[in-house]
Design a protein that fits this description.
The complex is a heterodimer of chains A (285) and B (225). Chain A is mainly alpha-helical. Chain A contains 8 helices and 4 strands, in the order αβαβαβαβαααα. The chains are: A mainly alpha (285), B alpha/beta (225). The complex binds adenosine-5'-diphosphate and magnesium ion (MG).
Chain lengths: 285, 225
């Protein structure tokens, strides 16, 4: 089945690019959620206690926090007396602040973590106002927007990659359409002969569809090599990214890339071949 | 009377929604030889295309080789075509492969498995057209008449009930044309295949006596030739 060679290379190349970009989107989505989860789970909410709070108030608060549904299961709320806070601050500043002979300006605090679902501005605000009115509490602090900002940025980059992938998918679609059309045109006598002696459309399309499967797999493999190569390289420069932390998800991603390449190419070849076979025999010539 | 191979009643033959031939009545019996004549542009090719379902029937009823054309969907068309042996002036051989490869190509396209059965069939049809010794020849080494005979051999492969021949002598000199015509009649007789032989060349009608159907002024006339 003769067909213009360079066109087929363009098809494979553009399809690989689409799959590579989609692979990046997938990788980015996994990685962003993995990293933000890491960051989020370590976000402390700080409850400052009043100077004259009682031990009972404090312990009741600790118990309440432990039982609250906005408390991260598996972690424990921590009480940090102001003396310890001052000492830790001193260690950070490499000076003994006690020696200054000042009054300790800090307050006793309790810190705790919340599950990821509560890490949104409005949920956090609700938690804060609930705690605010409890006896012995002076104030509640957390880094607002921190989470939202990370998530928004991650999403934005994801969309940009997805947009690029869509653009290249369009290019790939046009190239596939054009290549198949040229190939059908180059084989028009063969096809006409097949139709007139009584070949089914299935028989006529079969070589094109097989080629589509081969090309799709090849493009998938190229894209996969690109994604893997990038991952290996990034991992070697930025080991803290933990790029291979979730092998099962990665496996699905790799499999998805291969399958998608095969599917995209098969379906678009199928559509184009059928379209041209449906045109009246004469119109092709 | 045996069931007709072709049975048109009040059929309309259309090109792009325009009636080319109206209210066509045509009946061809098994094994019958029929000349289809008419000037260029009279609608002969359109009529034949309708018979092999390359043009949709514009109205009326039509049965070809047991297929009701009005109800023959896209999926059934290959089955219909396997009952027909279609030969054109320009429906020639694929030039990039030998005679036997051309024939194998047609066999495979119509569901034959590779093997001795297929090879036997190729021998048979080549024998029938008197070109058994050209099995391995490339088409460009054959004369125009020989190529057309190979095209007949290809049309014979699936033992059709009707030959549809459209200007098959268009490129041939008068003597070769007559030989081809004789061959068609002989093949029809030997295989019990009806023949619908379309030509604009009225001189060919002298080759032998047979029924003549004429296309003229948008109508089809049955007349004895
Ligand atoms: N593909 C086509 N589209 C539209 N009109 C066509 C087409 N082919 C033929 N015609 C018209 O149909 C009429 C009959 O043509 P045709 O069947 O080829 O006649 P013939 O075979 O007798 O020479 C002509 O007027 C021709 O212009
Ligand atoms: Mg014609």
């Amino acid at each position: 089945m003769p067909s213009p060679r360079p066109n087929q290379l363009y098809v494979i190349f553009s399809l690989s690019l689409v799959l590579f970009l989609l692979g990046l989107v997938g990788l980015w989505t996994f990685q962003a959620s993995y990293l933000t989860r890491q960051l989020q789970e370590n976000l402390d909410i700080i409850v400052e206690l009043e100077v004259d709070h009682t031990k009972e108030q404090r312990e009741l608060l600790l118990l309440e926090l432990l039982a609250a549904d906005y408390h991260q299961p598996g972690s424990t709320p921590e009480y940090l007396p102001k003396e310890q806070a001052l000492q830790e601050m001193g260690e950070d500043l490499e000076r003994d602040l006690d020696d200054l002979g000042l009054n300790n300006p800090l307050l006793d605090v309790i810190t705790f973590n919340v599950p990821i679902v509560y890490l949104q501005s409005d949920s956090l605000a609700a938690i804060a106002s609930e705690l605010q009115v409890k006896p012995g509490v002076a104030g509640v602090f957390y880094q607002d927007n921190f989470v939202d900002r990370i998530a928004a940025n991650a999403r934005r980059l994801g969309w940009v990659l997805l947009g690029l992938a869509a653009l290249f998918a369009l290019v790939a679609g046009l190239l596939i359409h054009n290549t198949v059309r040229l190939s059908l045109y180059a084989n028009r006598f063969t096809i006409k002969t097949q139709e007139l002696v009584g070949a089914s459309w299935g028989f006529i399309s079969r070589p094109y569809l097989w080629r589509a499967v081969g090309q799709g797999l090849l493009a998938g493999l190229i894209a996969l090599t690109g994604v893997l190569g990038l991952q290996v390289w990034l991992q070697s420069v930025l080991p803290e990214l933990d790029l291979f932390a979730e092998p099962v998800r990665l496996g699905f991603l790799y499999g998805g890339i291969l399958l998608l390449g095969l599917l995209i190419n098969f379906v678009s070849h199928y559509v184009v071949v059928r379209r041209y076979l449906r045109l009246r025999l004469d119109d092709l010539y | 009377m045996a069931e007709a191979i072709v049975e048109l009643r009040g059929a309309n033959i259309q090109q792009g929604g325009r009636n080319i031939l109206e209210n066509v009545d045509l009946r061809i019996a098994p094994g019958e030889f029929v000349y289809l004549v008419g000037k260029t542009g009279a609608g002969k090719s359109s009529l034949l295309k309708t018979l092999y379902a390359a043009l949709p029937l514009g109205g009326g009823s039509a049965t070809v080789a047991g297929f009701n054309l009005a109800k023959t969907g896209r999926k059934k068309i290959p089955q219909l075509r396997r009952k027909l042996g279609i030969v054109f002036q320009d429906f020639n051989l694929l030039m990039d492969r030998s005679v036997e490869e051309n024939l194998r190509f047609a066999l495979r396209a119509t569901g034959w498995k590779k093997g001795t059965l297929a090879e036997q069939r190729i021998d048979e049809v080549l024998m029938a057209v008197g070109l058994a010794d050209r099995r391995r020849s490339m088409p460009h080494t054959l004369s125009g008449g020989e190529r057309q005979r190979i095209a007949f051999a290809r049309a014979l492969l699936n033992s059709p009930t009707l030959f549809i021949a459209d200007e098959v002598t268009g490129n041939l000199d008068p003597d070769t044309s007559k030989n081809i015509l004789e061959l068609m009649r002989k093949l029809g007789k030997e295989h019990g295949t009806a023949v619908l032989f379309a030509t604009h060349d009225y001189r060919l009608l002298d080759t032998f006596q047979a029924r003549v159907v004429r296309c003229e002024g948008g109508r089809v006339f049955n007349a004895e030739g």
